[in-house]
Amino acid sequence: MTTIAYIRVSTTDQNTDRQLDGETYDKAFTDKCSGGSKERPALVELLDYVRDGDLVIVHSIDRLARNIDDLRSLVLELNNKGVTVRFCKESLTFSANDTSPMSELMLNMLGAVAQFERSMIKERQAEGIAKAKDKGVYKGRTSDMRRNAEIHKLKGEGLTNTAIAKQVGCSPKTVQRVLKQVA
User: Fold this and answer.
1) Residue among 26, 31, 29 nearest 53 (CA)
2) Is residue 19 in a domain?
3) Which among 11, 87, 161, 166 would be 20 to 30 A from 173, CA to CA?
C-alpha cells in the first residue's frame, strides 16, 4: 500500500506547508490552482497514478473539491479503483467496501458547505470588480502580447503545450487558449 498526499492551494503564491504537516506519505501531488474544476494537472496525475490498495490523504474536503458533484465523483472514482480516501481535518475515511451512512452524510454536508463558500467568494469578487470599474481603477485582464508571441514561436518549433507552459510560465490551458485565438 502506498500513501499518497493530495495538496491544493488556490494560487501560486500560497504556501502548502501547513496542509499535511505531521502526516507521513510516500508521494505527493500538489496543485496551485482553483478547486472549482476537476481539470487540475496534479489531480489528473494522481488519478492516473493510484492503484488498488493505495491510501490518498487530503488535508480537508475543500482541498479536493469545491463542488459537491466533483467531490462525490472523485471519491467514488478513487473508491472504485480500490483506493481509500482520508480527509485529515474532518477525520473522515472512505473506502470501497467500508463507507458508513454517517460518513456519507458528512461528506455531502461538508461538500455543500465548500461549494457554498466558493459561490460566496465569487460573488464578493464580482462585487469588488464592479465597484472598481465604477471608480475607473479596474481595466480587466490585458493580453500579454509578448507571451502570446512566444507561445506561437515555441509551438512552431514543435514543443508540446505542457513544455511551452513550463517555459513561458503559464498553464497548459492558457497555451491552448492562446493557440486557438489565432487559429
Assistant:
1) 26
2) yes
3) 87
Assess whether 177 and 89 both reside in one domain. no
Answer yes or no: do 99 and 168 share one domain.
Answer: no
Burial (CB count within 10 angstroms: exposed 0-12, middle 13-18, buried 19+), residue 22: exposed
Residue appearing with cell numbers 499535511: 20
- Domain match, 8 and 75 both: yes
Residues 6+ apart with CB under 8 A from 150: 168
pTM above 0.85, yes or no: no
Q: What is the pLDDT of residues 10-57, one digit of tens each?
A: 877 788 888 888 889 999 999 988 877 888 999 999 999 999 999 999
Residue 160: all three cell numbers together: 508540446
Q: Which three cell numbers stand for residue 113?
A: 458547505
Residue-range definition of the domain harbouring residue 82: 3-109
pLDDT of residue 29: 95
| H or E stretch at 125 | helix 101-135
**Domain stop point among 109, 135, 154:** 109
**Domain identity same for 14 and 72:** yes
Is 171 catalytic? The answer is no
| Cβ contact 5:28 at 8 Å | yes
Taking only the tens place, the pLDDT of each residue in 152-167 is: 889 889 999 999 988 8
